[in-house]
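Sample 1 of the test manifest.
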Amino acid sequence: MSAAPNLGQAINGGCDDRPIAIEVQHIVKRYGDFEAVKDVNFCVHDGEIFGLLGPNGAGKSTLIRMMTTLIPVTAGKAIVGGHNVAKEPDEVRRMIGVIPQALTSDQDLTVGENLLIYAKLYGVPRGIREKSIADVLEAVDLTKWRDAQTKTLSGGMRRRLEIARGLVHNPKIFFLDEPTTGLDPVSRIAVWEMLNNLKTTRHLTMLITTHYMDEADKLCDRIAIVDHGKLVALGTPVELKNSVAGANVVEVHFDRETEEWQGRLEALEGVTSVQPESSGFYRVITKSGSKTTMQIVELAASLGESLTSLSVQNTTLDDVFIHYTGRQLRDEQVKPVFTMPPRPGAQP
Amino acid sequence: MNRMYAIIEREMRKFFRSPTLMIMSLMLPILQLIIIGNAFGGKIVGTHVAVVDHDHGPQALKVREAFDAIAVNIKTFTTVDYGNEVQAREDVRTGKIDAAVIIPEQYSRRVYTDNAPKLGFVVDNSDLFTSASLEGEMQSLVDALNDPTVKDRLDKAIALEIVELYPYVNYLKYLLPMTVALAMYISVMIGGGMLYIDDKARGVHEGYLVTPITKLELVFGLNIAGAIKATLSGLSIGIIGSLIAGLGVVFHPMIMLQMFCLIVAGSIAFNGMMFLLMVRVDDPLVPRAMFGVLNVLLLYPSGAMYPTVSFPKWMQAMSVIDPFTYAIHGFKSILLKDGGWIAIRFDLAFLTIFGIATLLIATPLFKRTL
Ligand SMILES: Nc1ncnc2c1ncn2[C@@H]1O[C@H](COP(=O)(O)OP(=O)(O)OP(=O)(O)O)[C@@H](O)[C@H]1O
Ligand SMILES: [Mg+2]
């Protein structure tokens, strides 16, 4: 698939005949003169996990806040669960569960108390309150911690408590703003698995925001890339990667760093860009991974230099992001967050 | 309605779970009661007064005997003999002694000849309390010395006979009404001001706002919880303070009931005022900065420490709309005078109406969105 259809899809929001849980049409949010969200369109289908991917300040939280009735919409409209958020906010609120970006559970209360208060706020009938709380605790694997003070929980457990809190009234649509930010890799994977399970057992539609490429890739059925308040691409992870035609990444580590490597690599046929990563280590974006690999080996041999490592990566969402926004998401982030290990199966 | 109770339940559970708010709202008023009560309320004793006797006559001896009587009985001061007037003045100035009495030459003779006898009194008037107390003591001493010679005029002299309406009110008791009001104020300031804005900043309200709770349920939930906390603080201080000040209110059910009603009305008023002030605030620094300013603006014009009649007009105007004024008036009426319902009915009415009015103004200002 080429780039064009996806961009086209981004503009009409990827809506098709499937049942729709969330529909956002020409939505705009202005703070004074500043346009935080600019004419965004998309549809989220029933039962999918939909990801909004973008760097800090892209407008992800602003979008979620409009969809969850937290801030007024400047222009356009959002229809959630069949109700317009501007006209029937209470109907919307009854159908949705929301996990805000910040951890907001009460530290002074126990896990069970936090859930109880929210069950009451959501008007869960007295008769089924107990069962609902027990069920969500089970679902996020916190049953044993029910009577623990929230302040004694680890970050990952608190995140799970927040997830439980958002589910205590059995919503149909679940909004999660950066659900794994601040978690260690193991806890993140645990949260992904949990969300995947919840999706099937509770028949949930989920909209999550993230700035983690791997999270969007592994967890989401479809992804919308947001940048500077605009939706720049939309599709399944595979569609998005395929749309960035021929972009392979070759990572090469030379034994010896010389100033000439950059120029020599750029001169190779099919190479579109070369990014120095560290001493002697380069990330080469090329139209053909296999061809460039060969050329690099030959180049090194002809100069009598040797290589420490050489690897080809398939297209990643990183590359997709660069393609659509013209820059790397990682440039705006704390570096380690986005340093991904080489994919299993990547050819040497 | 159930959602409103959920908000109250959350606040109360937090309140009892972490006693910080309770302790903080009780500590300052109690300390103030004890420290200020004892600092201002006590009598001046044990000061030192120099006596410089240039006369050495029989009348001078009489003065010195009177001084000795004071040293033994009231103990306001003891005397120290000085031979040198210059040295005595210098020692008052440097604070070595608190005052000096100069008995001039020819003092005895002037007394006998009715030739305007004078005693010199040097006092350090930069210390208002000590100098006032010593001056008072000296004046009554001089009056006593004059006594035999003015006897014939006594019948014509106008005398002020002081009738104290209520049993002796010491400073600790006098401060108690302010202390109770202050406890309620601090509870509202921390619980309704700071914690409320902190919750907002932390995103706790964001959590509420995505639930189907209505604006009224949220506003009333927060305010009822705030008023309950202030009431608990006020009652605790009322009881602890009465015991410290030696008032037996605790043993009079009717006074306790009146006290309770006033505290509830006062809590509603304070809380409503705080909610109105904070309803559009997002910055957690604001309530912290306002704490002291509001304290001065509300407490001092209220007549808690000084009577409102002594204020300039603009301050009296402030005291008219200041809920502290009515809370303190009410507490004084029942704690110090046992004035009954009649004495506090206007205070009760004002506080309740003030609380409801501020809440009515604040509610439309409260945003149901972020
Ligand atoms: N209340 C506000 N007033 C003015 N500008 C705002 C307000 N809230 C957000 N913005 C601006 O809108 C833009 C989008 O912010 P938003 O919080 O939606 O970004 P985000 O994609 O969620 O970023 P992050 O990954 O950091 O959470 C930012 O530039 C931000 O400064
Ligand atoms: Mg955000």
